[in-house]
Amino acid sequence: MNGFDLDPEWWWLIGAAILGIAEILMPGVFLIWLAAAAAVTGFAALLGIPLAFQFGLFALLSIAAVTFGRRWYADHPVASSDPLLNDRAARLVGETVLVVTAIEGGQGRVKVGDGVWNARGLETPAGAHVRVTGTKSGCLIVEPIAALPPSN
């Protein structure tokens, strides 16, 4: 018997452990659900179900576990010290930006840092400063502000 002559249930349980460790090392809240599916499949394999059914069971359990996980995290969001970390547009709310393409008919373009974003708002000529008040589908919602004092 060499080191690779393990029964299938041990491979499933070893796979579950590896996936669990990978989730700890690279958190993404995804691998843990696959680890749970592999662990349950490993325990089911102890009952002597054929290998083909083990793979089918793992596939079904993986789908069910990931679906459950997505719903659970949607209902129980994880608190963050920076909730806007991955929402670039929302992070711009309150910022003052420069209109580079006049806002006409409710649409134009504004300069944000070294990039240019689509914007919606009241009629505003190019060169005017506006404040970002919100976002919608990656488009900035802006409103005109009083003239800014010259910078020193």
TrEMBL record:
<dbReference type="Pfam" id="PF01957">
    <property type="entry name" value="NfeD"/>
</dbReference>
<feature type="transmembrane region" description="Helical">
    <location>
        <begin position="12"/>
        <end position="36"/>
    </location>
</feature>
<feature type="transmembrane region" description="Helical">
    <location>
        <begin position="42"/>
        <end position="66"/>
    </location>
</feature>
<dbReference type="InterPro" id="IPR002810">
    <property type="entry name" value="NfeD-like_C"/>
</dbReference>
<protein>
    <submittedName>
        <fullName>NfeD family protein</fullName>
    </submittedName>
</protein>
<keyword id="KW-0812">Transmembrane</keyword>
<keyword id="KW-0472">Membrane</keyword>
<dbReference type="InterPro" id="IPR012340">
    <property type="entry name" value="NA-bd_OB-fold"/>
</dbReference>
<dbReference type="GO" id="GO:0005886">
    <property type="term" value="C:plasma membrane"/>
</dbReference>
<keyword id="KW-1133">Transmembrane helix</keyword>
<dbReference type="InterPro" id="IPR052165">
    <property type="entry name" value="Membrane_assoc_protease"/>
</dbReference>
<feature type="domain" description="NfeD-like C-terminal">
    <location>
        <begin position="90"/>
        <end position="144"/>
    </location>
</feature>
